[in-house]
Amino acid sequence: MPFGESFLTTIKSNKSIILDKSRRFRKTTGGYDWSKSQQFNFPKATPEQLKQIRESMQKNQKQIRKKQVFAFLIIVIALFFLYMYS
Fold first, then answer.
1. Model pTM?
2. Residue 31 region by backbone torsions, left for phi larger than 0, else alpha for psi between -120 and 50, else beta
3. Distances from the Cα of 51 to the Cαs of 17, 38, 43, 74, in angstroms?
């Protein structure tokens, strides 16, 4: 069984060569400071503001969807005519 043993020794030696990236990453990040967890103080939104934001986002999404459908239809029609006349 020399092939199996040589295979295992090769794997072990390769593992020792590889850098321990997790330890190196921990050293460079500096860790997490719990005292800075409350760094941002965002104002609370009222239900009316949330409703207004939701409606504006839905309106924008409808406009984007209409443009996408229109562009898709134009491309499909153009491909159809190219197929028919070629």
1. 0.48
2. left
3. 58, 27, 16, 35
CA separation for the pair 11, 18 (Å, rounded) = 11
pLDDT band at 23 (very low <50, low <70, confident <90, very high): low
**Distance between CA atoms of residues 5 and 13, nearest Å:** 12
Q: CA torsion, points 53, 59, 65, 68, in degrees to nearest 10?
A: -100
> In the 8-state DSSP scheme, what is residue 55?
H
- Give 51's DSSP letter: H
pLDDT digits (tens, 9 = 90+) for 56-75: 999 999 999 999 999 999 99
In the structure encoding, which two tokens stand for residue 43, read together? 């104002």
Burial (0-12, 13-18, 19+ Cβ within 10 Å), 67: exposed
86/81 Cα distance (integer angstroms): 8
